[in-house]
Amino acid sequence: MWRQMAGLVLGADLGATSTRILVATVAGRRLASVTGGGGNPTTHGVQRAAVELGATVRRALDGLPADEVRAVVIGAAGRATLDDPRASRAFSDSLADVGIMARPQYVGDAEVAFCSATSVPDGTVLLAGTGAMAVQIRDRRTARASDGLGWLLGDEGSSFWIGREAVRASIAAITGTGPATVLTASVAGRLLSEPVHRSALIRAVAARPPIELAALAPLVTEAEAAGDQVAAAICEDAADRLAGSVAQVREPGERTPLVFSGSLVRTPVGRRVVQRIGGEVLTPADGVVGAAWLAVRHLRSGWTESQLAHVHAVLAAR
Amino acid sequence: MWRQMAGLVLGADLGATSTRILVATVAGRRLASVTGGGGNPTTHGVQRAAVELGATVRRALDGLPADEVRAVVIGAAGRATLDDPRASRAFSDSLADVGIMARPQYVGDAEVAFCSATSVPDGTVLLAGTGAMAVQIRDRRTARASDGLGWLLGDEGSSFWIGREAVRASIAAITGTGPATVLTASVAGRLLSEPVHRSALIRAVAARPPIELAALAPLVTEAEAAGDQVAAAICEDAADRLAGSVAQVREPGERTPLVFSGSLVRTPVGRRVVQRIGGEVLTPADGVVGAAWLAVRHLRSGWTESQLAHVHAVLAAR
What is the pLDDT of residues B1-28, one digit of tens each? Predict the structure, then answer.
């Protein structure tokens, strides 16, 4: 049947925690949707990411003709890494190994997230998970970014940021420079086997990769749900920072879609962000749809926007 | 002549960038003051710190009788590391190798800084260099600390913090989310060989050890001196945070000495901190005096405070 569809498309989203692949017909019919292990080239290195991509694509193509895949769009955070010729060769080689000869196009994860939620060309996207970034989208491309600087320089309001604030609040409570909070017990429970002590907490954090602080973020939303005022203040602060990043890349009164994607969406922080932003906020049901749809756009540049919008609707329906 | 002084004392300050040794008589007469390479056990590891201590003490004792050293006080950031029996054994072994049999006492760098500047028992000390910490001192010991959490969790207003703000301000200027600043050119000049670009700066920072951001702090004070408003705002913010850390460990209206030590003292940030704190701020002329003087106190516990204050004055006079 796909032969009648005149070719297939493949969309990929290379995340830090998962590699997502969607294979579809150019008409938008979903043929395979597969999730593999973490495969972001910035997080895991190009070689490991290329191997994960190849393995996940192979699973997605099970029973489908690889040589019919005519367009491939790969979305990844830190897209700049993929502009490196060695990186794009590694990815092309991985695809060739499974029989795909189409040359992949690379786009940012913000663009994929935006195009997963809507077929209109302009708007704003907020990505808030382990990292945090707001992006102004014009003609489905990044026009301007706010934050997205990584955990060392920014990512304000992200899970990393929230986890770090949880440790800071715990230490402040221990030393008496801040109010008591249930976070002290829950954070220490995660980090320490020894008695709770200021310098023990500092050492425990220093002994781990910094990014692991992101794993403490759920302790804050749990504490907030239990009525902890310190946790609630962290959630408020995180939401202020995320909404602030959005405000920096959104014109006053702008009526375009605002897309909100990432693990913080369905949390007390995400709900506060939506309240602050106001208006309609879209959340993509499936974050890899945008990559597959952009591949259709490449392959069918002669189609009208109305035809392409229909393909979008078909791709997004599950 | 030192034989008439009935014994010698040795004070050490194990910093990230230098190992400082002061050998003196119990009467406070300075016999040797020597600076070695970085030898902080937390920064460099215990073994390397012990080797650096041994080598620097050997130079300090040149021509002096090691077996006359009756008391040793070692000050270091991250004193908790030295509470580890393996660490204290490594340090004792290094001292024994150069002929010193006295068992060293370990104190925090805040306590050494405070006792370097004054002989009174109570007050506040602000350490602001690569890191940042304010400490309430009672009976010459740490009673309560504010910040000093390390670069990942805090050190707000430190050189690390200032350097990171310089990169953030540069990126904001590049992306148009913040005002133009001369920092963009000076920061890029340090970090990049390629053209100035948001993601190039992010990658350049991520490719280096985070603590190297501290080396960018002087660019901010240079830019401030040249009238740059963004740099001035960073200096103001840093000073607010440092003064805020002091306020957390100082009772309202407290009249005790406030000691300010570290590389930021003689900078536009340090001057702003002093303005905000008000009152008299002491700066130790020689940051290892406190360690040698605490060694005298150990050895001469029967002396009156007035006698010991006299020894302090002699030790601090250069």
Answer: 444 556 899 999 998 788 999 999 999 9
The average confidence (pLDDT) of chain B is 92
Q: Is residue B184 situated within a structural domain?
A: yes
Q: How many domains does chain B have?
A: 2
ipTM for the whole complex:
0.81
Q: Which residues of B43-60 are buried (b: 16+ CB within 10 A; e: fewer)?
A: bbebebbbbbbbbbbbeb
B178: domain range? 147-256
CB-CB under 8 Å, A199 with B80: yes
Q: Are strands A105-108 and A69-76 parallel, antiparallel or unpaired?
A: parallel
Same domain, B40 and B96: yes
Å between A293 CA and nearest CA of chain B: 26
Q: pLDDT tens across A85-132, in order? A: 888 899 999 999 999 999 999 999 999 999 999 999 999 999 999 899
Q: How far is CA A118 from CA A287, A316, B276, in A?
A: 11, 9, 52
pTM (2 decimals)? 0.86
Separation CA A208–CA A188 (nearest Å):
14
Distance CA A147, CA B213 (A): 18
Do B105 and B6 fall within a single domain? yes
CATH number, domain containing residue B216: 3.30.420.40
Within 8 A of A149 by CB-CB distance, chain B residues are 168, 171, 202
User: In this complex, do B146 and A177 lie within 8 Å of one another by their Cβ atoms?
Assistant: yes
The tokens for A299 are 């392959």
Do B151 and B115 reside in the same domain of the chain? no
Evaluate whether residue A142 is within a structural domain: no
